[in-house]
Amino acid sequence: MNERNFPQQRQNLEERWRGDVRRLLGEDFVERALSFQDLEIEIFKDFNNKVQEFVKDIANNITTSSLRKIYDLIKNSKDASDLLLALPYMAYMVGKEDKSYKKNALGKLYIALKDPIENIKDERQVRNIKKFAEALVAYQKLYGGKEER
Known about the structure:
Elements: H1 6-25, H2 29-34, H3 41-58, H4 64-75, H5 80-96, H6 100-117, H7 123-143
Helix pairs in contact: 1-6, 3-7, 4-5, 4-7, 5-6
């Protein structure tokens, strides 16, 4: 592989994952994740259904332990800075995955969390990201819940 093309290949991969996330969660997934607990009831129901479909799409290719590691990082974050500092670790988890189907599933999860985290403006949004991540874990347990294979 030509090393000069690596950043472009990575960027294309992230854009493909972002397209999949938008297709499953909606074009406005960043705003909805940032206001997760504060959404009007009908908007919440719609987004919650999309979250379920998103998790169904990736659940069988992400182990419970991988998702729990990511969730623990988010849950234990005290503020937006802590969440931003968790992004490199999440990127590392995606990058070290050697099976393409697992890398793609983790990549979609990474984008679903990265894009909202990078747009946090206040502590309320930090709490909403944590609740959004909690929902991802809950639905992963329902639809996947697989341990290491």
